[in-house]
Predict the structure of Glycerol-3-phosphate dehydrogenase [NAD(P)+].
Amino acid sequence: MSALRHIAIFGAGAWGIALAQNFARAGHKVTLWSRSPVDAASRRLPRLPHVALLPAVHVTNVMPEGADDTLFATPTHALRDIARVTSGRGPVIACCKGLERDTYAFPADILRATCPGRDVAILSGPNFAGEIATGLPAAATLAASHLSMAEEIASRLATPRFRLYASDDLTGVQLAGAAKNVIAIAAGIAIGAQLGENARAALMTRGLAEMHRLNRALGGQAKTLSGLSGMGDLILTCTGPSSRNFRFGLALGQNADARALALDETHGIVEGCRTAPVLLKLARRHAIDMPLVETVSKLIAGDMSVTAAKAALMSRPLATE
Ligand SMILES: NC(=O)c1ccc[n+]([C@@H]2O[C@H](COP(=O)([O-])OP(=O)(O)OC[C@H]3O[C@@H](n4cnc5c(N)ncnc54)[C@H](O)[C@@H]3O)[C@@H](O)[C@H]2O)c1
Ligand SMILES: O=P(O)(O)OC[C@H](O)CO
């Protein structure tokens, strides 16, 4: 295992807590930054109240200093504001999955702009926070612009319970992480509306085809979409009932007032809701057809019913694959 490090994590939500526990369990010193005042004595944080923080995790709302590695586990829309006020040395690693609304920027673009001169990386994969927080085994992709950089960071941050696979495909990894949340909403809708398992499998597969089209146009590598951050995360999020994106879709498919649920972040961020319309605009900029992403965007906005969505998708011209 690598030498012990001081790791700063911004965002004390579900993912920040899980990462903190993982690194602390491996012996690293962890500073977990929370934007709200913290009751440090309880060693429990609201998002995962069943998890008692390990002693090596120091929770604070004061900017951490002197960390070897800095990770961001905030929602994507909060990343720019947080990253621009951090300082320090060592790599900055975004662990969020999404696209910024007005700029169409992926997390690595945001970190490049806000943390000039520092190495930038992305951590993404099939990772439910609750499982990692309790020490169950998992794996993810660690991507950077150069493979040697990704390998170096991955070897430092991998732990006995969290394997990291290096990649030099920032584009593919980030596109997959953003898009799978949108497809998971579609999968949830299919199950919620009792359209069946066949429909879910078809949505996942055709969703993956849409991801491939845009990935190609953006310059991402096809093989990335078969990896942990691609297929791996797509499978987990579309089939794992603890996915917030899937659960949001499920509620939408059951005609529940899901939009209110998505906007209420007290139950955790539903990134796919914010991502869907931005992803659609990005695809249009590149003249890429993403009918599934378009349909999910309309359903989220309340501009289409599930019945109309089913009819529209089933009556599209037949195609090859
Ligand atoms: N939960 C998971 O299983 C998981 C796994 C992998 C990746 N992710 C990704 O990690 C990111 C964070 O997810 P999460 O599950 O931790 O969400 P969460 O809703 O549980 O927590 C988000 C945290 O960010 C903080 N935050 C929100 N807005 C902020 C702002 N403007 N400034 C500062 N802090 C702010 C919140 O207070 C909260 O502590 C998302 O992009 C998500 O897709 C989540
Ligand atoms: O709960 P979700 O839908 O945000 O998914 C969490 C992770 O991204 C799964 O890898």
User: Anything to note?
Assistant: The first helix runs from residue 14 to 25. The chain has two domains: 6-168, 171-314.
